[in-house]
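Q: I have 123 residues here and want to know how they pack in 3D. Can you give me a structure?
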Amino acid sequence: QVQLVESGGGLVQAGGSLRLSCAASGRTFSSHAMGWFRQAPGKEREIVSSISWSGGTTYYTDSVKGRFTISRDNAKNTVYLQMNSLKPEDTAVYYCATRRGVTSTLALDYDYWGQGTQVTVSS
């Protein structure tokens, strides 16, 4: 069993930055791929970014490339999402998720989910 707890969300003006953290329990964290997803009101949950267990492979959806950076610290069982140059369209609940094996862009491939953290970007 893996438990995930996100933090770092909040209200920020357009152009600002936030850093999301996702703390994981369970000693197998280092062997799990991690993903950040988001869901805006009335929209489907979408992949934002993912990272392999080693950190060597990352993925970003087109709309956040060059603005967001995913990283992980396996010693701390934590994955981060640094979000810069935030836009109002980034407003959503952000979720971290984990799965064994390789990364995936599909939400249904992930086994464990956090409770989500709200990110609101004002114009």
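Q: Anything worth noting?
A: The two ends are 40 Å apart (CA to CA). The longest strand covers residues 92-100.
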